Amino acid sequence: MLTVYSDAHHAHHAQFELIDGKLVPPFEHPRRAEMLLAQVQQANLGEVLPAKAVGLEPILRVHDPGYVAFLQTAWQEWVAAHGDETDALPLNWATRTMRHDRIPETIDGKLSYYSFDAGTPIMAGTWHAATAAARVALTAQQLITDGAAAAFGLCRPPGHHAARDFYGGYCFLNNAAIAAQAFRDAGAARVAILDVDYHHGNGTQAIFYDRSDVLFVSIHGHPKQEYPYFLGYEDERGSGAGEGYTYNYPLLWGTDWGMYEEALTDALQHIQRYAPDVMVISLGVDTFEKDPISKFRLRGADYHRMGAAIARLGIPTLFVMEGGYAVEEIGVNAVNVLLGFEAAS
Asked: How far apart are CA 158 and CA 325, in angstroms?
């Protein structure tokens, strides 16, 4: 299996995030991608290719132009207002009874308008790294469009929490959604996205919620217990033309492989009935039992089983890297999915 990687992810290396009432070093950091790349190479998974240059057009097919412009200039505006000693974090959010139809002029207001958490800092290299991750996904997408049966986009920062016009959850540009739209623009009539990250892919769901040409299926920690809390319930099935093209499998803390496999089997049956031309996997391995910010109990060998189950659909498949914060094991677990897929293909 071909892997696409860009060293530009190192440009995003934040100082801290706000979690559990404390400012701590971010759980999402460059070593995650370094460990993934090392394991891809150690396992002899296949050739590692660089990301190709692309313009903004594929990004703007998914993301709001105003939001993209904000990401391009946010750091410069933050430095002008506050200096460069700290990363940029929002001050507050527009919630119930507040207006959502006006975008503030100041950087503090813009950060609050375009984000949904305080755990996703912006720094000098954020835009560079985020666009590099999108290029990784698009380069891997093109490999499959050109005939490859599968490819791995080793993306960092991740993307599935980013919606059309807001960021959060360590995500700025939605790499999986950008790739899915690129498949459609390249001629695929139907695209399926399977999100196996521990956290619900709220951004991806929102982007395609009213569409029938992209099926979104997610298996994740139950929002009544787990971040991002406000999306990912079973009754969210799509709207308008997209009604019936969203499936959520929220699972409770303590879920092990037996419980997870039941949900995965049902999810894959929905995808099989949909009969997509191509499938995008939002690959998060924060379902691992030792992950520091998650509460599922999957083990290393379970990821091999997961990859094999996905492969049995026989659909061209793009894997896009999302979460996973047990850094010592992230490469082994993610590559186990890919090796399981290869063995069953």
From this structure: 12
Q: How many CB atoms lie within 10 A of CB 252?
A: 13
Distance CA 63, CA 208 (A): 12
Of these residues, 13, 160, 161, 220, which one is catalytic? 161
Position 100, amino acid: H
Structural class in CATH, domain 2-62+133-344: alpha beta
Asked about 200 being catalytic, the answer comes back as: no
Kindly write down the DSSP assignment for every residue of 176-216, as one continuous string: HHHHHHHHHHTT-S-EEEEE-SSS--HHHHHHHTT-SSEEE
Give residue-wise pLDDT tens across range 239-296: 999 999 999 999 999 999 999 999 999 999 999 999 999 999 999 999 999 999 999 9
Decide if 158 contacts 322 (C-beta within 8 A).
Answer: yes
Q: What count of other Cβ atoms lies within 10 Å of the Cβ of residue 163?
A: 25
The first and second tokens of residue 86, run together, are 């700290």
| 165 contacts: CB under 8 Å, gap ≥ 6 | 63, 64, 66, 67, 114
Residue 145 identity (one-letter amino acid):
T
3-class DSSP state of 345: coil
* Residue 121, both tokens: 């800092």
Task: Delimit the domains of the chain by residue range.
Answer: 2-62+133-344
What is the model's pTM?
0.98
- For the beta carbon of residue 273, count every other beta carbon within 10 angstroms: 8
